[in-house]
Amino acid sequence: MKASDLPGGPKSGEILCQFLDIEDGAAKEFSYGSGADMQDIFIQRMGDKAFAYLNSCPHAFIPLNMKQGRFTEKSGRYIMCQNHGALFDIQNGLCLAGPCNGQSLTSIDIDLKDGNIIAI
């Protein structure tokens, strides 16, 4: 999904943040729109890569995290829904275990350019 498809979302080519603003293993959250159209996304850093997803469990459509900037389980290897314990592959958003097994997080298209994370 393109970030620009979100109500009030960033325009294609807009800088979301600098890559180094996100610590390795951590995430940064963004909100777009307002009221019933409010959508939250997060960018998860994993080494020299970043992955962006809609902050919504595909099972219950509720936010994945209970703590700001923290989306992974203790080992940092998987994104985890803090409400149901579902585990998701960081690189592709596929649910590997839990009530939404086989479903995926909604991926948000981003690019890394000149040290910036950019909306596509």
Topology:
Blueprint: E1 15-18, E2 27-32, E3 39-46, E4 49-54, E5 78-80, E6 87-89, E7 95-97, E8 107-108, E9 110-113, E10 116-119
What features would you describe in this structure?
- This protein is an all-beta fold and 120 residues long.
- It has one domain (3-119): Rieske [2Fe-2S] iron-sulphur domain (Rieske Iron-sulfur Protein, 3-layer Sandwich), CATH 2.102.10.10.
- Helices cover 0% and strands 36% of the residues.
- It has strands spanning 15-18, 27-32, 39-46, 49-54, 78-80, 87-89, 95-97, 107-108, 110-113, 116-119.
- It has a 4-stranded antiparallel β-sheet with strand order 2-3-4-8, with no helix packed on it. A 3-stranded antiparallel β-sheet has the order 1-10-9, with no helix packed on it. Strands 5-6-7 form a 3-stranded antiparallel β-sheet, with no helix packed on it.
- The radius of gyration is 13 Å and the shape is globular.
- The termini are close together.
- The model has no long low-confidence stretch (mean pLDDT 93).
